[in-house]
Specification:
This protein is an all-alpha fold. The chain has six helices and no strands. The radius of gyration is 16 Å and the shape is globular.
Length: 169
Amino acid sequence: MRRIFALFLTLLILWAVLAQVNHALTEFRVYLFAGALFVSFTALTQPLRFGLATSIMGGMICDANSPVPFGTHVLLFIVAHVTVFHIRDRVPRDDNIAAVVLALFTNFALFLVFSFTQIHGSPSPASIWPRLLMDLFCSQILIAFITPWFFALQARALEFAGPERGETA
């Protein structure tokens, strides 16, 4: 339980930082989406139960402040987590470049699926795509730069939390 709580706190920090950055970028009409960071580390390094619980809590954080039906982020994060979890044996987990590439692909997929599920509420969906592509481009740059830092933060939080009861160090 301590490990889940430690990872949840890192996701809460990520959410707060992203909220502040997105608030600062509103005058430029840019929105940064970093959904992959809520899923990738736990899917790569944790057992399915612990990682899925953390991804679900991260989805709830994102849903709580978004103008989408509650559960949208949770559902997308569950699908992304399970997908990454099942391909993690093919990805070198200790390689930062591989982790960044995986996070970029995961973020790309989450962004597109999220956009397609939410675009129906727009009065003119075709006119939104240039802005969405710009948001995706900026989000991918953000992911490329902060993934190593955020993965290190999560790894350090796990070290701080220590092993679970009954687990060897």
